Amino acid sequence: MKGTHRVLAIIVIALIAVGVVNYLPRNGEGGEESVSPAKKPVLWNLTDPPVLQTVSWEMEGNIEVTTLSGDVEEKLDYQLRPLGYYPVYANWSDCRWTIWNGRKAYYVGETEEGVLVARGDLKAVVEWVNETSKCGKPGWKTTVIGPSPQKALSYTASLIGDALEKDGVIVVPSEWNGKIPWNLANYSVEAGKVRILILIYATDEQLEYARSLLEGKMLCISALSYRALVVLDGPAGDISRAYDSIESVADTRGASCG
After folding, report:
1. pLDDT tens across 215-256, in order?
2. Is 157 left (phi over 0), alpha (psi -120 to 50) or beta?
């Protein structure tokens, strides 16, 4: 058991400290394009939600603020998560507002005029809400347990590492030699002769595009409020055994790549 805990600790530490976790747009996908890739998702390689790309912003201190029509709120909720944002504070009782964190922070709140949106550094946005909100303020009562893509990745890597260790396979952090869809949080390990790439995705469009760029045997696992695509590469017999170990995790946690 001590050996298992030590290996899993190495995986988690590597995820947090070494910086191999990625959810930042980069140029290219880490290799040449597949011969016939799936259609690139609209929300691929973006920092800001498309619904906000043409709006006018006003500066209020260190943040930007705008008021939009009421139908924008649902579109923002749909677009922010695939771009790597996750809720950190929210008030969903008397009136609705949410603070999302990612490359920057977004405040999205209902008003009589429509939807108030603010963006900037998380600390600046929280301070602005504290100063201006008439409907609850960020604090322990409004903290949301909204897992980030990185937490979902760490969670999945630990589950996979534990399953393989139980079957007597040593798991260590490793480099993935093939293409990597850098827009998705990702991490790779080596289990014996098998290389394993784990990707966290939020939409079916992201999944299909990522699959079209990758080669290897694949399966999916539910990962907190996300899903994980797991890709295995190596000798056929070793892949089959590793796949069976990881499939046991998928069977327990839920799985669907369809």
Report:
1. 889 999 998 889 999 999 999 999 999 999 998 887 776 666
2. alpha
